[in-house]
Amino acid sequence: MTHYRCVVCHEGEPRLQGEVSPEGRGRFVCAKCGATYDLCGGVLKLLVPEPPKHYFDALSYARKCLGQADLEWRTFTVQRVEYNPEFRNLLEHHLNFDSIMCSLREEIQPRSHVLQIGCRDTTHYLQWFLENGHEAWGCDQYIHVEDDWADLLGDPTDETLGPRFAVTDLENLPYQDNAFDIVVMSHTLLHARHPEIACKEVWRILKPEGMFILLNEPQRGLLSPLAKYQKAARLPHPREKRYFFWDYYTALREAGFLRLQLFFPEYQHQLLKLWRVSPFTFKILSILLRPFWWQEEMRRSIRRNGIIPAYFIIGFPLQVMSRKRSPDDNEKPGFILPVDAPLELASRLPQRGDIGERRKDNTRGTDRRKGNAGTPRKTP
Questions:
Q1: Is the pTM of the predicted complex or chain greater than 0.85?
Q2: Whether the Cβ atoms of residue 338 and residue 103 lie closer than 8 Å to each other
Q3: Which of 24, 49, 56, 172 is the most exposed place for a label (fewest CB within 10 A)?
């Protein structure tokens, strides 16, 4: 496997020992230190023998939210389920991702190697890259494999690609240096106990000139109270500084990402355009902006020049891309304002009602309320 590395010695390469069972079970062994890693359901568990406390804390809170507090943590990390009801804002995240890909499509090299950090909630990003001819992998702190993931799991016995999915600690990624052309992280950095360490790990595994796409990260602003995101994200250890735009920027800058290209979140843009937003503070904002949204030039200007106030004041979710530059390039810290690339996706929004804290997943028929994640249903 060209991408994986041992999380114990940080030098050896885990290799398959023996055969993989029809259920996707097997064992990988580090070629240097002899550390062993289990393959469960086609997902490789790349964890140190005694994971750090922050990892156990994250799993403990996740098990409690999903009604599996009594389940042993090793069993919880990889499960086969019919569907995963934990993730509620699929539409919002997919629209924002599609908008950014529309802007960056020409900059992405053919057959790029892509890693999605935080893949347990949606495979929309991985499917997009695979359908466009790229190779994609995913990792997270725990992964509940859905029934329709059969085509995504790939062949774990492939010596070139290896297992596509891995369970790991966000601050100790099991990948070799300069392994990926693109790293995508969606609604994930806020779950890291030390976001600056997670960003440094991303810097390490990116190739020179590689892209780091960070999107859908909740922020604190005047119109987005901190308590709302503590409940919505169900953080095990909410820390106030993690929600401010400047703190995200500081973590990225410490890792080496100095020049940030900003994007206006497409989902929020569509809601403001349609004046269908909730809670009440966002509805007032949409009414104030309504006269300007009728004018195409004014709407484009707001998307471009209003991005900083949208992040600092309103607290819209962060959408940013940065490249791994060499220190010899003498790149100066700063922001690149978004180039307007209108993506009209309003037809994908629900036809009635305001979009706010309570949403209904029409594809699943499941009413997903804030703070009520439900319990995954295991397949027989």
A1: no
A2: yes
A3: 49
Our CA angle for 63, 69, 74, nearest 5°, is 70
* Cα–Cα distance for residue pair 264/250, rounded to 1 Å: 20
Band (103; pLDDT cuts 50, 70, 90): confident
Q: Are residues 146 and 83 in contact, defined by beta-carbon separation less than 8 angstroms? A: yes
222 class by beta-carbon count within 10 Å (0-12 exposed, 13-18 middle, 19+ buried): exposed
Tell me the C-alpha distance between 53 and 259, whole Å.
33
Contact 293, 332 (CB under 8 A): no
Mean pLDDT score of the chain: 76
pLDDT of residue 266 exceeding 60, the answer is: yes
Does the pLDDT at position 137 exceed 90? yes
CA 141/CA 73 separation, integer angstroms? 11
State the alpha helices, DSSP H only, in the chain.
53-65, 73-77, 90-104, 124-131, 150-153, 195-205, 226-233, 245-255, 266-274, 280-293, 296-305, 307-309
